[in-house]
Amino acid sequence: MRRLSDSFAEVEKRWIIGLVVAITVALAGLIAIQVHWMRSTLAVREAQFHASADNALIMVSEQLERLERMRELRKHAAGRRLLLRLDSLRQGVPPLPPAPPFAPTDSVPPAPVTGLHARPDMANGDQADLVHDMVRAILASELQQDIRSRIDPALLDSLLRAEFGANNIAGPWTYSVHNANGEEVWRPDEHEPRPADTGDPHKVRLFRHDLVGPAYYLHVDLPGHHRAILRGMLPLIVVSLLFTLVVVAAFYITMRTIFRQKRLGRIRSDLVNNLTHELKTPISTIGLACEALTDPSVPKTEEQMRTFVGMIRDENKRLGALVQNVLQSAVMADGQMVLKPVDLDLHAVINDVVRASNMQVSRRNGRIEAELKAEIHHVEADRTHMTNLLYNLIDNAVKYTEQEPRIRIATRSDNEGVTISVTDNGIGIPAAEQRKIFDRLYRVPTGNLHNAKGFGLGLSYVRTVVQRHHGRIRVESAPGAGSTFHIFIPFEHVRSD
Hints:
This protein is α+β, with helices and mostly antiparallel strands. Among the domains are: 227-317, Helix Hairpins (Orthogonal Bundle); 337-494, Histidine kinase-like ATPase, C-terminal domain (Heat Shock Protein 90). It has helices spanning 2-75, 77-90, 124-144, 147-150, 153-166, 225-294, 302-334, 346-362, 383-399, 458-468; strands at 174-179, 184-186, 202-206, 216-221, 341-345, 367-372, 378-382, 406-413, 417-423, 472-477, 483-490. The strands form three sheets. It has a five-stranded mixed beta sheet, covered by helices on one side. The protein has a four-stranded antiparallel beta sheet with strand order 2-1-4-3, with helices on one face. A hairpin with a 3-residue loop joins strand 8 and strand 9 (417-423). The protein is elongated, with a radius of gyration of 49 Å. The model is unreliable at 95-123 (pLDDT under 50).
């Protein structure tokens, strides 16, 4: 039966480990997919942003060039005549059939006027003169003007703001003009020089329809665009992280619950086994003593009678203590520990417990010392539970001591309450186990040694009694150096209910 139980336990352990591994891998994959999705979305939005910025700059360049051409046309008589004709066409003058083609001559035929139709009162020679005048004027202006004089900062700012706004591109931005070699030739006074560690700027050619002259490029830096993109993705990132945290928290809580239930199941199994063993021993001893007393073949001297009666009495007390431990555990589990506080003299209670425990300690050649130095030792407390608390600590000190027990109970007081310290010379408690010793049904692992019997209920009961009295308990211990339990019971006037 034991082998079958161990086999089931091993299968269950493997199943839990497999479940943990599978969920961990799935969770890691989910997080990896979320990270990949976020990075891909960020890359797509980055590309969309750059495309929008480039398109906006192209529109700015075209509008800047168009406005300059309009200004140049208005400066010359031929241009003004052309604009007047364009205005007349826009106002609804019906177009006339185009003039017949020019007769071949030795001279180069005049270029046609795009968007215009010849009028009856305009001769072909007049058209050629008009176009030639405009071309000469524009070429002359391109050759004479410096790039700095061709750019109006206020106009450029207005165009950039309008186009960037239409493409949902928020500022700030800085711009400058560079030549074909990348050398800066102009920058507005209010714009700081471009930092060296800034990435590649967005650029577009200015006046790209110029027939002559060098090429110039408008460079625009958008230093805050990464933050703007991340700000736009922030709701998606927050929701994704929130869902991921919920899944991780659910996984952690589920695994912790599984392992806790598994540990509680093992503890309950050990409790049943220990309880069975602990109950069988006194029952068997009492049964043997009763049979010896009732067996007529066994001589019954006065000494033997006292021995058998003493065995029955001791084992009966042992049974009573076991039942009391189980009942205390049930009371603590239901949270129904009822206190009957009275004006209690702790020194008197300690002296009574020491006298009653001296016989148990003296059987192992040990001793109990009392150093009662508390100036004020009266508190509002339950006599029964405080007495049981001290009995439990002394019983643990005797059980977990491999040598002759040396137990010291000391008291001291201050303005807030009384501190009781119980020190032993036992095997000690490792630091890693000190936080667990007050848990119900928990026993410090001792390897394959089971010479100290118990259920892991005593210290849990002690902590519950202290907490119900609004006190505190802590332990100082080290393996091989014994343990000291410090119990603080506050006075009634400092308790906070």
